């Protein structure tokens, strides 16, 4: 498992846990969105390096 996958899972789990509590709901939603974005855009530098070479 690559590092951006680990970070994405971490942010998703943290977002789910924070979304349960009403006073942390906004931070939980932001964490969920950030976790999804890390999954989507995490491996871009590897693909860019392959194209350059």
Structure description:
There is one protein chain. The chain is built from 3 helices and no strands. The chain has helices at residues 3-20, 25-41, 44-52. The protein is elongated, with a radius of gyration of 14 Å. The two termini are 24 Å apart. The model has no long low-confidence stretch (mean pLDDT 84).
Q: What portion of residues is helical?
A: over 70%
Distance between the termini: 24 Å
- Strand proportion, as a percent range, falls in under 5%
The biggest sheet, with number of strands, parallel, antiparallel or mixed sense and barrel status, is: none
Shape by Cα distribution:
elongated
Structural class: mainly alpha
Describe what is shown at a glance.
By secondary structure, the protein is mainly alpha-helical.
List keywords for this structure.
53 residues, mainly alpha, 3 helices, 83% helix, 0% strand
Write the layout of secondary structure elements.
Blueprint: H1 3-20, H2 25-41, H3 44-52
Helix pairs in contact: 1-2
């Amino acid at each position: 498992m690559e590092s951006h996958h680990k970070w994405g899972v971490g942010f998703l789990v943290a977002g789910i846990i924070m979304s349960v509590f009403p006073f942390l709901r906004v931070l939980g939603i932001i964490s969920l969105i950030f976790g999804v974005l890390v999954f989507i855009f995490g491996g871009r530098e590897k693909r860019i390096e392959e194209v350059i070479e």
